[in-house]
Amino acid sequence: MDFNWLFFWILAAITVTSAVAAVLTTHIVRMAFYLVVCLGAVAGLFFLAGAYFVGAMQLMIYVGGTVVLIGFGVMLTARTPFVRMQTTPDQWLLAMVTAATLGAMLLQATLRYPKPIEPPGIGEPAVSPGRLGTAFLGLRLEAASSGTSSQTGGDGEDAESLGVAYLLPFELVSVHLLAVLIGAAYLARPRRRPDQETGREGEHAGAERSGPGEEPRPAAVAIASGGDS
Amino acid sequence: MELPLAHASQIPLIAYLLVGSVLFVTGITCMIAKRNLIGILIGIELILNAGTVNLVAMSSPFVAGSGLPALDGQVFALFVILLAAAEAAAALAIALTYYGGYATIDVDHGDRLNG
Amino acid sequence: MNLLHWIGQLEGDAYRSLRLFAPEGLVCATMLLLLLSRMLLPSRRRLPYWLAFVGVFAALAAAVMQWPFFALLPQLPHTAVGGFTGLLRFDTLGLFFRILFFGFSAVFILFLGMTRLPPDEDVGEFLVLYLASILGLCVMASADHLLMVLLGMEMAGVPSYILAGFIKSRRASGEAAVKFALFGAASAGVMLYGMTLLAGSLGSLHLPTMGMRLAAWTDPSAFAARAPVLVLGLLMLLVGLAFKLSAVPFHFWVPDVFEGSAAEVGAYLSTVSKAGALILLIRVASGLLGADATIPRLPDPAQFAAAASRFDMPADSRPVIREGVIQAGAAADRNGDPNVRPVAFARQDSTAEHSTAEHSTSELGSPAQLVSRFLAAVIAVLAAVSCTFGNLAAYGQRNFKRLLAYSTIAHAGYMLMPVAAAVAMWRTQPELARWALAASALYVAIYLIMNLGAFATTAFLRDAFQSETIDDFAGWIRVSPSLTVAVAVIMFSLIGLPPLAGFVAKFAAFASLTYSGLWALLVIGAVNTAISLFYYLRVVKVMVLDAPSEAVAAMPPMGKGAVTFLAVLAASLLVLGVLWQPLFTWAKAAAGAL
User: Fold this and answer.
1) Is residue A204 part of a domain?
2) Signed CA dihedral, A64, C133, C414, C369: sign only
3) Hey, is C276 helix, strand or coil?
4) Residue ranges in chain C whose pLDDT is less than 70
5) Contact criterion met (CB < 8 Å) for C158 and B58
6) Which of C51, C201, C378, C421 could form a disulfide with C436 if both were Cys (CB 3.0 to 4.6 A apart)?
7) Domain extent for A75
8) Do C158 and B86 touch (CB under 8 A)?
9) pLDDT, tens digit, for every residue of C116-126?
């Protein structure tokens, strides 16, 4: 019994069917659920491929974070209990044509995917979180022992291989997350300042809306937003 | 860290790449076919997941034909997951702002800017 | 053992790289100070502007002070320093663009202080998002690894999506931000997929290593087997870059985002954001094409020793060849001595070996040549289509910001032309390719000034008159003649009329096309410059010749600050149009690093 293949087929089947189901359904909540299943199956594929930490992070961040966020988005923006999206036939046609074209191109490239130039180290132990951690601290441990890149040195010098360590992106991404957090918090908070001319509150984000098609009067908008037309 | 599964046959890289390409095409279709902001966002998540599947498979020691060093592919996949989460948060905040102006998340109603 | 390793690594590579990364570190510190000031001193309304300006100016000073470190090394031509174990590449071209970004930011913060947007209590957040985006652009300018390419694009992109939707009370703003964010995220996803295909088939995520592997394929049949994956990967990577560059057919976000968002955000998006994408394209192209499969010649030991001391390398370091580039390593110590970390990368201009490499078995040329021709063709097509479409679609636009949006698309086309020329000449005539890159850098520098002026005009007129329609600007010459003259100068420069700086930029771009022999592109560019004459002139005509409406005639004169700002920009365009030599010499010195 070849467990590798068995698990791969199961997980791949779950991934593909839930992704296709997410496209075909019209229910927005079901779409979010199918996404959860798909991402979970992808995490399973990661575990199968030996990327244990990445799989765990996929479950934590994607399934446990992003999809919850999408769920909140659905809840905050749905005006009826079950929002249904109707896709018109011509949009489906465009989507199918694009999918077919892209699919053909990708399939062609994938099936003719070449053998790699040098297999880097089949059979070496899978990457442990310890090695990931030291890479994030700026130290690449296995670089000292084996040379993974080809040498074109002509005079017999055997330099160390290029050990890329990931200290910088680790720090930079935290700055990026801070900025995105500040920006998202700014966008999501309601405007506190009341409209000076009429005294009523300025437009809020949220469910208390006066009506979908109402265009605010230009003068009120001009004064309330400080001269922006 | 040898696992019992390591003695089983290795899965060829093409299998993982096919899964990745199916996810990619599905994501693009979802983006085009859905007229709902959340639907488009889900399509984007599928596309980004296709990239991570590719990366992890190409750097996996349990996959036949992988070409990248294991650590590099996995670190890249981790960063993609992080960046995708940040982008989803920003996109949802923007969707809330859009909702505040239009009271709907149907992108076809956003026609004040024509073109 | 590992702890000692780590400390040694930090002492060596990380410390050195952090010193070179200092300008970006100052930007991060400024962001933190802005957030703290917002929390601790919320009542000081102008403090964020001052903090941001001082921080950006300090970053600019730090970057300018680094210039002599790179430029005064005649012994080792084409020198770059690898940063953070090969993730970044610090060289003169990246430094040129970083100086441009910081300089632009300083002027931009002054400009922000003069306009009525952003509202005072939100300035801190606006500036934090802006600085985060600038940080991403600086990462893009120094990227040498596909992870940094993606990280830079995302760091620059996501805050700008939020900035596009910053004015929450404007309905169009939210729509603009939605279109921008969804388009941007999709293009980032497509770019990521293309990067995985490229990296997998070339076996590495480090751009110079990828280029080396590409150049090492001399067997045409092996290359033919790999070509579909490479082509698809490259095209998908270019999708992401073309989105940021607003090149057709990935330009759909531009008119709506520019019209919907504030003019200040438009000023930022149309200038430095595009410049960052351009330098990133150059980085990717140079990484994939730049390595040489032949063995480079080792430099003279005495020269190397002299240069080694400048790079803080140990005294006994000697040149070591690794992956086609010369690096410094201590003699024969392979047991992980941390002092051995390589520092300087230098490539010999081995033109003699070029000819042997190019005579490969296939008459089409070596694989690297094929890739460079393919890439040049794609970029040329993008450039041609962008400038044609942008110029044609700009006619009939009533809204000034939409007109400027289409003008931005057209200028993206002009900006791409020298890059196409450079990529075409990369393997065959490296010196001229560097000249073309210098022309492209010059174009970017001049374009930053021009477009900032154009969008500043929009912002000031909006503040005064609450309108962005061109016909509402009729007769402004009677209200504020100096402002109208400044606007006219900026418009003429955008067309490319002599003796203004815009003409110099276009001339350099077209000259690089003649060197590379891309005649079709030259003709298209010239025709488009002629086509673009009329819609810019229409703006000037409306402001000068048309009779003003009563509302305009009754307007008080414009504020002095606005007029001075535009006058300074216009004057600099005039000065640069005549005295362009120093800037171009600087650009050529910058491009020499590749």
Assistant:
1) no
2) negative
3) helix
4) 1-2, 71-82, 218-219, 291-365, 550-554, 593-594
5) no
6) C421
7) 1-84
8) yes
9) 777 878 899 99
